[in-house]
Amino acid sequence: MATAVLGAGLGLPKATKTRITVKRDLSVRARDGVILRTDHYSPGHDGPAVLIRSPYGRGTVVALLGRLLAERGVHAVVQSCRGTYGSGGRFEPLIHERDDGLDTLAWLRRQPWYAGRLGLIGVSYQGAAHWAIAADAAPDLAAVVAVVTTAAMRDLTYAGEAFSLDTVLTWTELLESQTEPWLTRLIELRRGQPRLTAGFAHLPLAEADRVATGGTVPFFQQWLAEHATGAEYWRDRVFGERLAEVDAPVMMVAGWHDIFLPAQLDDFAVLHEAGHRPSLTIGPWTHGSPGLFAATVRVGVSFLTGHLTGTGTPPAAGTVDVTLTGRGGHRDSWPPAGRATAWYLRPDQGLGAAPVGESAPDTFTYDPAAPTPSIGGPVLVAHRSGPVDNAPLEARPDVLTYTSAPLEHDLTAIGPVYAEIWERSSGPYRDVFVRVCEVDGAGVSRNVCDGLVRVAPGRFDEDADGVTRVTVPLWPIGHVFRAGHRLRVQVSGGAHPRWSRNPGTGEPLGAAVTLRATEREIFHDAARRSAVYLPVEIQS
């Protein structure tokens, strides 16, 4: 009954089976002898299969997907990743997913009911586990649905070459708490997760996992230690180098306020530039939001059943459905033709399309002992994510704001966003955070996109005066700023705990305990034109 109501509500292809068979806790043996626990949702006849490999269990959403697919004539195979929910071995993120996934495909090929056509669907980590095998799954692979995920998880972990503390520690706590009694977990959630909050605030970071979870978590320790660009640790844990080899139809589902968006759109570009025609859906979603769930089921089931069974009408290759935020609207290409348009910071806390002449820099102090907080934006937990009122942030003395005059016309910006900030610091180790907001007629400032980069000696060039031009990639955008509203740009020295605070000392990431405040100068004169570059849509 539930799947019938959901299928009708989401406009899914009509179910062809009213009765399905579910076999639980099947044993799939990996090459090293580890048993991977697996559930099988069968339509009762030979046919194609969809594989879902997950570290989050085989119930709830993946069980629902399994039933929806089986009711439409597709075998669904739902497997717990090694070390989770009954599967043997120890969970070590990413390193076993290629071998375990390919061993499961070999198992599938031995099943008498498997017709030789494979689909993959995965959300977040599940999707990364599927990218691990996609290049090697031919000739079986017939369709991939990648939902808020990426083939290159390192990019998310060290966004801007800083450390994505909120996402990583929250995920660590989530995985560790899955073994706790449900009542213990419920009490912790209702109390506002005080252990996790304490972990965010704790130094050194090498102890944060113990504070948040009660124990030391090996992969969290490794991620603190292996943060250097090019670290050997990540070589077998990212799968982007072979992404271009995947020639099966691909559907990507992304959210404007999702943690994976920049890396996911990089994956889309790799496939596109390799001559493939991936499809893309972007909506106003955060990681785990209800709208994202509905889109995953609606788009994913239709795409998979269409390509695997020929029922329904899957979207044509290369179909793009981009829902704009702000005033709204849709676009059918990514990125639409746009022009990188500068909005220059001005000395009167203004923001304009033309730079100014001579002016003194603006100043603030960044103190890691009282770090500039993060509010809203793309984080792992949906209820803390997305657009929010930025008044508490903009009232702080360590946040500079630059605001435009009211817009005379709607301004549509779609595509990549970046900032060039000319800045000088009293210390060589610091972060630069930039956020773009829209200020409505009532003066409420809500974030649209943002980004942060970590600055260290040798990473950016300095001029003769010790001023550094720092390029800050922001999250991509698809937004209509309304006429009468104003643009606002924030510049600050951090966004904690979304990114770990920069201690200002250059100490190792996991060991730093000494905190050093830095005096910061932001320049906007004729020679050093700090600006944010928005991809303004070119009207045809």
Automatic annotation (TrEMBL):
<dbReference type="InterPro" id="IPR013736">
    <property type="entry name" value="Xaa-Pro_dipept_C"/>
</dbReference>
<dbReference type="InterPro" id="IPR008979">
    <property type="entry name" value="Galactose-bd-like_sf"/>
</dbReference>
<keyword id="KW-0378">Hydrolase</keyword>
<dbReference type="Pfam" id="PF08530">
    <property type="entry name" value="PepX_C"/>
</dbReference>
<feature type="domain" description="Xaa-Pro dipeptidyl-peptidase C-terminal">
    <location>
        <begin position="301"/>
        <end position="533"/>
    </location>
</feature>
<dbReference type="InterPro" id="IPR005674">
    <property type="entry name" value="CocE/Ser_esterase"/>
</dbReference>
<dbReference type="Pfam" id="PF02129">
    <property type="entry name" value="Peptidase_S15"/>
</dbReference>
<dbReference type="InterPro" id="IPR000383">
    <property type="entry name" value="Xaa-Pro-like_dom"/>
</dbReference>
<dbReference type="GO" id="GO:0008239">
    <property type="term" value="F:dipeptidyl-peptidase activity"/>
</dbReference>
<dbReference type="InterPro" id="IPR029058">
    <property type="entry name" value="AB_hydrolase_fold"/>
</dbReference>
<protein>
    <submittedName>
        <fullName>CocE/NonD family hydrolase</fullName>
    </submittedName>
</protein>
<dbReference type="InterPro" id="IPR050585">
    <property type="entry name" value="Xaa-Pro_dipeptidyl-ppase/CocE"/>
</dbReference>
